[in-house]
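Exercise 7b. Backbone tokens:
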């Protein structure tokens, strides 16, 4: 706890100094996010599972979040720090951003620091605003948080067209230096023919909207005696109308290595389809209960022989059904998901069966304090 206070003290001092130095509209927010769970994990005692899961109570995450805004006459400044408290302290978001409005409803925003790469709508959705208990598995294949610079533009007189571009070190979270001279480049283009400008959330809690987007990423790493080149591409679609919602995403990745590398070239692929419907129950429960469904598959690296059932590189998929209760929107909700999991890689290199019973049932409470 003492170490955490030492880390947060400079942030608090900066915010206090900034607040006293400016007379404009200033907002500060210190909050947190907690997600306790009760899990049942199916155990298949007929096979030796590489990474078995355990039933019981769990605390998926517990985070502290500090944000500050200064809205000047021309620019809006924002700073954000988000840190994970369990199982140990880990810095997640740490960036400062500036933006302003443009003519014709356009706008721009530039962000510098450790942040999510602008690849995939779901990866740029706050974890507390998810429709399901967990991110889709294909998000594990995306670079996620990186140190760098990103820019976003809502095109003037055509703000329904939004463009993102980012340059990052591409070496991973909390790696504060670029370990070689290479950079990771990320681009995203989104088309919004229906709906107003609004924050990214899942489910039908927001306004009626339709989003269609495409993503691309290029990254080259120097790994000592050889180089790794990473090319990712994807597309996603989000629709929300009168309490019904749909989200679809497809992902493809290609990794290639320089001659003499100890690794083989390989491909990745992932798919996620989510559906939701807020029940129109009359009275105080109107659109508080939501039925949800997900179908997903992911193949991380099928060139590496799996060691057995539960191997991290094993291709797998899930059918997920659930129900949500939104007591205060995404800030206070109760989620119940049942996962029926199956394996795409059904045998190991010796021809032994690699399928196993590994369904799960997760009850999760989400509480976010802003």
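Sequence design result:
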């Amino acid at each position: 706890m003492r170490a955490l206070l030492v880390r947060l003290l400079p942030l608090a001092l900066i915010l206090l100094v900034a607040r006293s130095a400016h007379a404009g509209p200033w907002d500060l927010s210190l909050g947190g996010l907690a997600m306790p769970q009760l899990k049942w994990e199916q155990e298949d005692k007929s096979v030796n599972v590489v990474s078995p899961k355990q039933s019981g109570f769990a605390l998926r995450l517990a985070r502290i979040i500090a944000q500050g805004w200064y809205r000047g006459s021309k620019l809006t400044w924002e700073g954000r720090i988000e840190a994970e408290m369990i199982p140990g302290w880990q810095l997640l978001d740490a960036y400062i951003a500036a933006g302003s409005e443009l003519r014709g409803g356009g706008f721009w925003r530039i962000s510098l620091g450790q942040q999510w790469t602008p690849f995939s709508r779901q990866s740029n959705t706050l974890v507390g605003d998810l429709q399901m208990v967990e991110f889709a598995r294909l998000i594990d294949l995306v670079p996620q948080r990186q140190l760098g610079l990103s820019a976003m533009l809502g095109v003037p007189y055509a703000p329904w067209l939004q463009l993102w571009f980012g340059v990052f070190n591409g070496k991973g979270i909390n790696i504060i230096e670029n370990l070689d001279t290479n950079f990771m480049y990320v681009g995203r283009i989104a088309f919004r023919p229906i709906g107003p400008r609004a924050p990214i959330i899942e489910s039908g809690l927001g306004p009626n909207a339709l989003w269609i987007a495409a993503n691309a990423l290029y990254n080259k790493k120097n790994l000592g005696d050889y180089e790794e080149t990473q090319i990712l591409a994807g597309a996603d679609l989000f629709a929300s109308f009168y309490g019904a919602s749909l989200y679809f995403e497809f992902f493809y990745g290609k990794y290639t290595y320089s001659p003499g590398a100890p690794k083989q070239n390989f491909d990745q692929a992932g798919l996620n389809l989510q559906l939701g419907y807020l029940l129109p129950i009359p009275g105080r429960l109107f659109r508080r209960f939501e039925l949800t469904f997900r179908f997903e598959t992911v193949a991380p690296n099928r060139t590496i022989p799996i060691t057995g059932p539960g191997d991290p590189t094993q291709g797998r998929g899930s059918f997920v059904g659930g129900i949500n209760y939104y007591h205060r929107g995404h800030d206070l909700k109760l989620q119940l998901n049942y996962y029926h999991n199956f394996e795409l890689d059904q045998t190991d290199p010796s021809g032994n069966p690699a399928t196993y019973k590994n369904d799960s049932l997760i009850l999760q409470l989400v509480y976010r304090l802003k």
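Instructor comment: The radius of gyration is 22 Å. Confidence is low (pLDDT under 50) at residues 13-23.
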